[in-house]
Design goal:
single chain, 399 residues, alpha+beta, OB fold (Dihydrolipoamide Acetyltransferase, E2P), DNA polymerase, domain 1, hpI Integrase, Chain A, six-stranded mixed beta sheet, three-stranded antiparallel beta sheet, disordered N terminus
């Protein structure tokens, strides 16, 4: 049973002439020209290849690729090979971001075990507790430590081994770390409110308004168009960076009465099925996410339903999807360009939108919770921090 975590952002390379593949999975498809589709397929060793084929398979289709470069779907795969189907379903149970995080956590655990002369699959609960203490000493956050625990349990289970992280000594160690840090200031992303967002968009608008820049550096203009759409949608819809990275053209809806609605598949708050988020219309202010998105898609030629919305226009075909880390770096770079760098992360757009929503006295808490797609209203209230305690204080105005 495989415990690999696939890096879905690895660069695909052309399938060598005469090479065949068995049971490869279609990861992406792109229209090229003349009815030809560029298929990106992943083989059993997690290597990514691309080939040109007149067929247009759905993403996720399992195919055999013949030596002449023709992909043929495997019919009734689940019925003919239920064990491989079960393996694929297990892969789909976690998002790409979770798999990458688990991979990094497992590597950290492997490295620590190697230094201690231990086997990572044969360790004891006391070893996991010591590992967590060592990682805490390096300044890792509590959420990262919990992720370490989850990754150890995941890989051990995938290899049919007992989970050493599921023990009272591990739970008590984590509880002690949390208690010891209770008075430390938590590392939280800086909230980018409406004023900060407008400040960040200023230089972008300057680039877009300059005919000289458009003529001398068209790639800078494309990046500006992309980043404007990304910032306005990410803030206006309160999206996570992973949700921005996962958007496809087919997920976008432009209502007649304005605004931009997006379908989110496999999110943190709803891993099965989909949910909806939306950025409100703002045509009269010049900060309209729907208008910015239309302009970006048209300029970049992103028209096919399966295309990723946010791509690197400088990549070989201009269609390489951006990872959540890439999106975080864009947010940080644009903020740093106007002097807002310290504390800004990929979460700053969502945090800023949440804070602004909670500070509006005319917006009920349940509406902010619905906007942020939180299951628990206490999670939503946490974004208000001390502001909520002051603005809604029961004794306010009595003295």
């Amino acid at each position: 049973m495989s415990s690999r975590v696939r890096d879905s952002n690895a660069q695909a390379v052309p399938l060598p002439e005469g090479r065949s593949l068995k049971r490869a999975r279609v990861e992406a498809r792109e229209f090229v020209a003349g009815g030809i589709t560029r298929l990106v397929v992943c083989d059993s060793d997690d290597r990514r290849w691309f080939l040109l084929d007149a067929s247009s398979f759905e993403i996720g289709t399992i195919v055999d690729v013949s030596p002449d470069g023709v992909a043929r779907p495997i019919r009734n795969t689940e019925e003919s090979d239920p064990y491989e189907a079960a393996e694929r379903y297990r892969e789909l149970s976690r998002s790409d971001a979770t798999r990458r995080a688990y991979k990094a956590s497992w590597r950290a655990w492997e490295s620590w075990c190697l230094n201690q002369g231990l086997s990572p699959l044969e360790a004891r609960p006391a070893d996991v507790a010591a590992f967590l203490a060592a990682e805490a000493g390096q300044g890792l956050s509590l959420s990262t430590l919990r992720q370490r625990v989850a990754a150890i349990g995941h890989v051990c289970a995938a290899n049919d081994r007992a989970n050493p992280a599921r023990a009272a000594i591990v739970d008590r160690t984590l509880a002690g770390i949390a208690r010891g840090r209770a008075r430390q200031s938590p590392r939280q992303a800086r909230a980018l409110g409406a004023d900060e967002l407008k400040q960040i968009l200023g230089p972008i608008e300057t680039i877009l308004a300059s005919p000289a820049i458009a003529a001398s550096d068209p790639m800078a203009r494309l990046r500006a168009l992309r980043d404007r759409a990304l910032l306005l949608l990410g803030w206006g819809a309160g999206l996570r960076r992973s949700e921005l990275a996962g958007l496809r053209v087919e997920d976008l809806v432009f209502p007649k009465d304005g605004g931009l609605a997006v379908r989110l598949v496999g999110t943190k708050s709803r891993q099965a099925g989909h949910e909806w988020a939306a950025a409100p219309p703002a045509e009269h202010t010049g900060y309209d996410a729907a208008r910015a998105m239309r302009i970006w898609l048209d300029a970049a030629g992103i028209l096919e339903p399966a295309y990723a919305v946010f791509v690197d226009p400088a990549s070989r075909n201009g269609r390489k999807p951006m990872s959540d880390r890439h999106i975080a770096r864009i947010i940080q770079a644009r903020a740093a360009a106007v002097g807002l760098g310290p504390g800004v992360s990929g979460h700053s757009l969502r945090r800023g939108a949440a804070t602004e929503a909670l500070e509006r006295p005319d917006v009920a808490l349940w509406r902010s919770q619905q906007f942020l797609r939180h299951a628990d209203p206490r999670t939503t209230s946490g974004y208000g921090e001390f502001r909520d305690a002051l603005s809604r204080h029961p004794l306010r105005g009595l003295l």
